Amino acid sequence: MSVLTIKDVTKLFPGGTKAVDSFSLEVADGELVCLLGPSGSGKSTLLRMVGGFETPSAGLIAIDGEDITRMPPEKRPTGMVFQSHALWTHMDVFKNLAFGLKLRRLPATEIKRKVEAVLELVGLGGYGSRRVTQLSGGQQQRVALARSLVLEPKILLLDEPFASLDQHLRERLREEVRDIQQRVGITTLFVTHGQDEALSMADRIVVMRDGGTEQIDRPDVVYRNPQTPFVAGFIGTMNLLEGTVANGIFTRASFSHPLAVADGPATLAIRPEALDVTPAEPGAAKVHRVTDYGTHGLLDLDLPDDTRLKAMVSHPAQYRHGMGVNLTPRAVSAYRNNAQIFRSEA
Amino acid sequence: MSTTIKVARPVDWTGIFFAVVLTLVIVVPLLVVGTWAFTNVWRFPSVIPQEFGLKFWYQTLARADVWSSITMSLTLATTVTLISAVICLPAAYAFARMDFPGRDILFFSFLAGHAFPKFGLLVAIAGIFLQLNLIGTFWGVVLIQLVGTLLFMIWIPVAAFQSVDRRMEEAARDVGASPFRVFWSITLPQAGPTIAAALLLSFVGTFYETEGAWLIGAPQVRTLPVLMISFINNQPVIQYGAVLSVLLWVPSFIALLFARRVVNSGSFAKGFGA
Ligand SMILES: Nc1ncnc2c1ncn2[C@@H]1O[C@H](COP(=O)(O)OP(=O)(O)OP(=O)(O)O)[C@@H](O)[C@H]1O
Ligand SMILES: [Mg+2]
Questions:
Q1: What is the CATH number of the domain that holds A279?
Q2: Confidence bin at B203 (pLDDT 50/70/90)
Q3: Does the beta carbon of A41 sit less than 6 angstroms from any atom of ligand 1?
Q4: Is B176–A151 a contact, with Cβ atoms under 8 angstroms apart?
Q5: Is the pLDDT of residue A99 over 90?
Q6: Does the residue B178 lie in any domain?
Q7: C-beta atoms surrounding B83 within 10 Å
Q8: How many domains would you assign to chain A?
Q9: pLDDT in tens, A262-299
Q10: A226/B45: higher pLDDT
């Protein structure tokens, strides 16, 4: 029952860095939105402004219509999970979880009940008397999540909570957190610069760049229909070809493809899995390397001007280094002046 | 097949040399003084005292000037440490958490007092204190000792506060703690042991300090070390000085225990790298 509204928010740090640039977003009740972008794109700064740890230079942040732009963090109905768990090492697990409840002057029995319940929720039942330093990285991060959840915040904020964990643990916790988030039904803003994380967890993804928004969409839409060449290059593997369009034909070196747009420069984006390859001599491109993943293969292809392309094939065994191939894209999108001008689907 | 290569570790002669010299310079005098304190008779050619006993403890502790100087030293060290804490801890927190113009210069100025020959500085200050009628007064000595504690009481707590993870403080704000509550429940306990060590070091430092105490305080304000010096200078009986100096070891030992913690935690080194 909680909606987060961010409206035209700008953050200018002393020294002149514009970390966030008139950013707007509305997160619906129970929705999980991922902020995805390269390092320095302003994700943490935005999240910290929602949590109250930075003050916006301009704009408005509201929860359920109530303006919280200048409210100090201790008054906000938000709960934040930091990258480096930030647990209080001089307290045991129980005290870490009980601290916020004590500040709210709950009776001791109520505190005990809530803490035990939330420990069960994150799969750490019975760990209350452990010292924080005696927990593994994954367990610490779970306690940090529990510390926020136990206060039942309206908005949950997570800043790369799994960044310091290894791949396997990261994948497992990602599923657990998504699971918990859906069970509790809490509105969540999640920062990551791992696209896998964003694609697998999010209801919607916000792709950020230089403090601004490049695209806000469902994960599958961001993947299939990137609105800018930046998004196209950032999410998943993508072949990006700079070339020119003349008389409805896009050309880059020996590669050409019909493209029904006005003449001029253009960037063509083709997914490796949407690029069909047929052996041909001399062919438009030469095979540089063949990688066999068992289920499929990946070809590295070179155009005569050394532009590198990737193509996915189902039978990699039939290709060899130096072989000539012709290329037929099944689906492309094209960009000019940072905007999409053409798109075809397979 | 595997081969084991044995590398003979070269004998660390430099290390041994320094260890031996340090032992001679520090441990032997301590032993001698310690022995003297519990000796009733010890005449020249003998290596071992002829008679052990507590005679001189009774004699020393029966003197009124010894008791008044112990009281003086304790009062002085406590007063200086408390005032220093009240002034320096908030300042240290400001140094650790805020950035203001002149921060670095001000920070290093605390070191300056220790970088120059101290006695020259003291004489200059004594000149000023003479004008202000502070010579020979308790508060004059407090003032001069305060200056001496600044280094410990700023640099060590700054390092301690800096090493408290800022995210921990933010996490506490996040669950609803006011800034003061955060300082009390999170920052202080996290920095606690190191700050306790700083307090102890400044207490002990004040307790032992002689030059300033003598120059500013004499003859009215007489601390235990000052009294000990006058004993050693004026009395042919070695045991008086020995007993006093054994008394003076007590705070040292406590301080050493704490100092180990500080050095081990690495925050002292961090303070100097800040
Ligand atoms: N306290 C600060 N003072 C000045 N500049 C800052 C401050 N915090 C962040 N910045 C700058 O703001 C920009 C955005 O930083 P931010 O931490 O939000 O990026 P991010 O997207 O979270 O990056 P990462 O993925 O590396 O965490 C960066 O250029 C950064 O240098
Ligand atoms: Mg960040």
A1: 2.40.50.140
A2: confident
A3: yes
A4: yes
A5: yes
A6: yes
A7: 16
A8: 2
A9: 999 999 999 999 999 999 888 889 999 999 998 899 99
A10: A226
Q: Which of A74, A88, A151 sits opposite B186 (nearest CB)?
A: A88
B170: nearest CB among A53, A87, A148: A53
Final residue of a domain: which of A179, A205, A226?
A226
Contact A39 CB / ligand 1 (< 6 Å):
yes
Residue A231 lies in a domain: no
Q: Is residue B1 part of a domain?
A: no
Worst-scoring range by mean pLDDT, A232-236, B44-48, B199-203? B44-48
Q: Mark whether A178 and A29 lie in a shared domain.
A: yes
Model ipTM? Answer: 0.83
Q: In this structure, are residues A36 and A205 in contact, taking their beta carbons and an 8 Å threshold?
A: yes
pLDDT of residue B155: 83
User: Looking at the domain assignment, is residue A232 inside a domain?
Assistant: no
Considering the domain architecture, whether residues A103 and A215 belong to the same structural domain is answered as yes
Closest C-alpha residue for ligand 1 atom 19: A40
Q: Closest partner residue to B190 among A82, A90, A104, by Cβ?
A: A90
Burial A78-115 (b: 16+ CB within 10 A, else e): bbbbbbbbbbbbbbbbbebbbbbbebeeeeeeebeebb
Residue of B nearest to A155 (CA): B174
Show the domain range for A39: 4-226
A80–B174: do the CB atoms touch at under 8 Å?
Answer: yes
pLDDT tens for A157-176 read: 999 988 878 888 888 888 88
Tokens of B26: 């520090």
Helix (H, G, I), strand (E, B) or coil at A25: strand
Statement to judge: residues A27 and A157 lie in one domain: yes
d(CA A126, CA A105): 24
**Phi, psi dihedral angles at A52 (to 5 degrees):** 95, 10
**DSSP per-residue letters across B229-258:** HHHHHH-S-HHHHHHHHHHHHHHHHHHHHH
Instruction: Look at residue B58 and tell me if it is in a domain.
Output: no
Query: Is pLDDT of B258 > 80?
Result: no
Q: Are residues A245 and A220 in the same domain?
A: no
Average the pLDDT over each of A55-64, A136-145, A202-211, B52-61 and give the range with the smallest value.
B52-61
Query: Mean pLDDT of all residues in chain A?
Result: 91
Rg (CA), chain B: 24
What is the rounded CA–CA span in Å between residue A184 and residue B201?
Answer: 52
Q: Ligand 1 pocket, A229 CB below 6 A? A: no
